[in-house]
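Journal club prep, notes for RB
We'll compare a predicted complex against what the paper describes. Inputs for the magnesium ion case:
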Amino acid sequence: MTSQMDAVLSVRNLTKSFGGVRAVEKVNFDVAAGGVTALIGPNGAGKTTIFNLITNIFVKEDGRIIFFGRELEGMSPVAIAELGLIRTFQSARVFPGMTAVENVMIGAHRLAQRHGFSQTLWLSSSRKEERDTRATAEALLDLAGLLQFRDVHSTDLPMGAQKLLEIVRALMARPKLLCLDEPAAGLNDTETQELTNLLRAIRQNGTPILVIEHNMSLVMNVADHIVVMDAGTVIATGAPKVIQEDPRVIEAYLGTEHHAVP
Ligand SMILES: Nc1ncnc2c1ncn2[C@@H]1O[C@H](COP(=O)(O)OP(=O)(O)OP(=O)(O)O)[C@@H](O)[C@H]1O
Ligand SMILES: [Mg+2]
């Protein structure tokens, strides 16, 4: 019980402006171990900016980010990924000229480098390691319903499959926290169901997830905890049932054209 309550990521007083725009202002929230935390809010609320601050792609103005008890202050995005904080991007990023399985295998790079195997590909132990990596990649593709596309060039895949592929690649890095920015955007109903299943399987495996998402039925289906942002600040946090009925949340969504009330 206690370990479920422990935060893997704590965001404290996080603040960032762009020119005159307060994109993120004094934001506080925690991501619990072994669960799914959803970060929701209308367009421009500051959600992606939070990801860019967590991964030090943007430099924060103020605040603290603590990952497994360690301050991420001053660390490079690569060093943060090496700690196991792995993210995907709002628009799918696949490597062109590579098949689906090759795209996934690239995700093991973080681990491979640690073992020095990228420099020693000609050694038989490394060939075995490559075979193992391929087997793991194929098992993960299967989990996401993508095994049929294994040898298809990634850029020939439907957009939804490309987005799922990016998550599978992120899993290859054995994340200690998986951060997903709008994984359901552009997915059809079948792909969204596959995504839901995949997120449940990842959760079941004990990997915590922080997911930005506009698809409310997905959020309400998979999230254990929800953080709601509007105009740079956190306006509510809580369990899905509580959030759905929160008047501030309903008002924030009614004020925008693009998204239904959760
Ligand atoms: N690189 C940047 N330069 C200038 N302004 C930025 C930059 N990135 C974000 N912003 C601004 O910061 C605010 C928050 O943007 P952000 O992309 O974090 O929103 P979001 O919640 O992810 O929205 P969406 O749901 O549309 O993806 C917006 O006003 C946006 O215009
Ligand atoms: Mg965004």
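Talking point for the session: The beta strands are 7-18, 21-32, 36-40, 62-67, 70-71, 85-87, 177-181, 209-212, 225-230, 233-238.
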